[in-house]
Specification:
By secondary structure, this protein is an alpha/beta fold. It contains 23 helices and 18 strands. Helix 15 packs across helix 23 and helix 20 runs parallel beside helix 21. The longest helix is centred in the first third of the chain and has 37 residues.
């Protein structure tokens, strides 16, 4: 009898494992031909890693993922219905349902619909258990068979859906699931809305449902006639032995990570399993620099930073200017996902950004400025705090991030009214809490009157509406004696790339990146056309830059071309047109603008005035794990497990951002990178 039960269970698990391996194999083939995969010049050993170790990783996840199904199957025995256990269990379920439904429980602290959901689950559980307890035994068999079918359908659907989702995620970011996927999971409303607006979700869902039903029926139709011995319960002790392969799989999938260290990032990503990468990113979303990264003695690291900035304590240093301060209004516009590569100035031939290209010709233009990261919160962190990026979550999203030494707080202390304008809901990415806690007044979608919104998608109002709202608010402020500082964050250049019809040559229903870029630039042009008519325009200095690039995928952990952003300071009659050709970090932009206004202030910034004679060209470029430092065309990467790599930037006519791995590292640059990141993390990320 036990052999019959074990054969039944083994058949289910073998087919689930086979399906997982087949989907994983097909997915790797598909990813190899994906447009984001630009380098598949693998060695023979690397091909083995991709497919053999990749299959082993998939098998481990299949074993681990089978635990809920395994737990269900060993719980279907009839023992729990015997007297008095069945009646006791029913009484406990009924009591729990009544307590949650009519009493005040911990679920009420969560608010929303959480208490109703828990009440519904307990109510369903209690009623269904009562039916199984009092109705004939054959009802239990049918009940169990139905739920077994549902479990198998869900498993098959999850495996197929995950394969599709991994392909879509790779198409956007060029990697398996990472911290971005974890980050987005928190904001299900925006993410689900984004998916609904970006793809024909009805057709895709129907197709996935049909495919799941076909595969599940093909593989498991015989499992829908379980043997009667399955319900005996006498085999449960043997079934518990499944815990052994599960434990081995947990150990092995973690052990295999050490083989994901190829210089070619695609080898590492292709052999990995997306589900494990998601889990790994989830548990590592807050990375301790001192625990995971290379370090210097703290006194040595601090001494270096103090020598660079002439600072004391936590990098407090005086920025002084002998000239009188010029109290102009300041408008900082950070544009969503605006890669420099979309500009004609940097080689684009489709004419997507005439406004930005025009501003570059009329202002202080930065030709080689790099974003600090690949998420909006990283750009906001750089522009508002002027700090190198920290590992793990951005400071914007961390708890206890108020009262920092922000640009807003600095200008507020100088008598400015400081604002953060966002066309979406500022709870997203914790923006509202961060900016309101750091000297800014926040204006977001909730502050818009109905007639102020002409077009919106899941991310917020279109850029035109956002700019018009900002102009109205700034007009109101201009009547006072206090100057204003306004930080505007745009949203339109983001999937699903929807915008008002008739504004640009690219149809609004194309939902293309080119359309998003072109409309964002168009809206920026409309903003300047309208702002130029306002009384405050001639007394305002503008900084326009991107928050990050449209994509961060590439052949190396940090491909330079995927961090190259536009930035220009514009103030007709005040800032003379010129070009800065040296390497500039995103964190340097605001300090440079403040220097143009001759501001003196106590600074904690790591950003510097790029126009100063003692400026050392360098940039901080990072993912949520890899921390990069670029100086003199040497890119130093600091990674978890205290790893260090260096790349040499060796541009060619065909590839101006070409980098090659250096075998002989330069210790001087490594020490500088460590000192900057180590001290910034110690002083600002706790």
């Amino acid at each position: 009898m036990k052999n019959e039960q074990i054969r039944f269970l083994a058949g289910i698990f073998v087919w689930l494992a086979a399906l997982t391996l087949a989907v994983g194999f097909v997915l790797r083939i598909a990813l190899l031909f994906n447009a984001q995969t630009t380098d598949i010049g693998f060695s023979f050993g690397e091909w083995l890693q991709v497919f053999l170790l990749g299959a082993l990783n998939d098998l481990c996840i299949a074993v681990i993922g089978s635990v809920p199904l395994w737990a269900f199957l060993i719980s279907v025995s009839d023992a729990k219905y015997r007297r008095p256990f069945g009646y006791i269990a029913l009484a406990l379920l009924a009591a729990a349902f009544g307590y949650v439904t009519f009493g005040r429980t911990i679920f009420d602290e969560y608010g929303s619909v959480v208490p109703q959901i828990v009440s519904g689950i307990l109510g369903f559980w209690a009623v269904s258990f009562a039916l199984r307890l009092f109705l004939p035994v054959r009802f239990r068999r049918v009940w169990t068979t139905v739920w077994l079918g549902i479990f198998l359908f869900v498993y098959v659907g999850a495996i197929l859906c995950n394969g599709i989702c991994e392909y879509v995620f790779w198409s956007e970011f060029g990697v398996r699931y990472n911290f971005i996927a974890v980050d987005y999971l928190v904001y299900t409303h925006e993410v689900i809305g984004n998916i609904v607006e970006s793809y024909p979700i009805g057709i895709l869902t129907a197709g996935l449902f049909a495919l799941t039903a076909l595969v599940a029926w093909t593989l498991f139709r015989r499992a829908l006639n379980p043997p009667p011995s399955l319900f005996s319960g006498r085999w449960n002790a043997v079934a518990l032995l499944w815990a052994v392969p599960v434990a081995v799989a947990v150990w092995l999938v973690g052990f295999n990570v050490r083989f994901q260290n190829s210089p070619n990032v695609y080898v590492n990503e292709l052999q990995a399993n997306g589900a494990y990468k998601f889990y790994d990113a989830f548990v590592k979303n807050e990375l301790s620099y001192e625990r995971f990264y290379p370090t210097l003695p703290q006194a040595e690291a601090e001494a270096f930073v103090h020598s660079v900035y002439g600072s004391v304590d936590d990098n407090r240093h005086a920025v002084t200017d002998a000239a009188a301060e010029i109290r102009r209004n300041i408008v900082l516009i950070s544009m969503e996902s605006m890669s420099a590569s979309y500009m004609e100035r940097f080689g684009e031939t489709r004419g997507l950004t005439p406004t930005l290209d025009s501003l570059y010709r009329c202002g202080l233009a930065f030709d080689r400025v790099y974003a600090v990261g690949n998420r909006t919160v990283r750009g906001l962190e750089a522009l508002s705090l002027s700090l190198p990026p920290c590992p793990g979550q951005s400071i914007v999203k961390r708890p206890n991030n108020g009262s920092m030494h922000s640009v807003g707080a600095l200008l507020r202390d100088k008598g400015y009214r400081t604002f953060y304008f966002y066309g979406g809901n500022s709870y997203f990415d914790n923006m509202g809490a961060f900016f309101s806690g750091n000297g800014y007044e926040v204006v977001d979608k909730s502050d818009y009157a109905p007639d102020e919104i002409t077009f919106a998608n899941i991310w917020g109002v279109c850029d035109e509406d956002a700019y018009r709202k900002a102009i109205r608010e700034l007009n109101r402020l201009s009547d006072s004696d206090a100057p204003f500082f306004a930080h505007l964050m745009t949203v339109s250049n983001h999937r699903p790339f929807t915008y008002p019809e008739g504004r640009i040559a690219i149809p609004a229903d194309s939902k293309s990146r080119a359309g998003g870029v072109s409309y964002s630039d168009y809206a920026l042009g409309r903003f300047f056309a309208e702002a130029a008519q306002q009384a405050w325009f001639d007394d305002t200095i503008f900084l326009i830059c991107a928050d990050h690039c449209a994509s961060s995928a590439g052949r190396t952990e940090i491909p330079l071309e995927k961090y190259h952003i536009p930035a220009v300071i514009f103030a007709p009659g005040f800032v003379e047109p010129r070009t800065v050709g040296q390497t500039v970090s995103q964190i340097d932009l605001v300090p440079t603008l403040l220097a143009l206004l001759h501001f003196s202030y106590d600074s904690y910034f790591y950003g510097r005035n790029v126009l100063a004679d003692d400026y050392v060209p360098r940039a901080f470029i990072a993912t949520y794990q890899d921390l990069g430092y670029l100086e003199n065309d040497v890119l130093t990467l600091l990674s978890p497990v205290r790893r260090v790599k260096q790349y040499r930037h060796l541009p060619t006519a065909d590839d101006p951002f070409r980098t090659v791995l250096q075998t002989d590292t330069i210790p001087e640059y490594i020490d500088r990178a460590i000192a900057f990141y180590q001290t910034s993390d110690r002083w600002n990320s706790r």
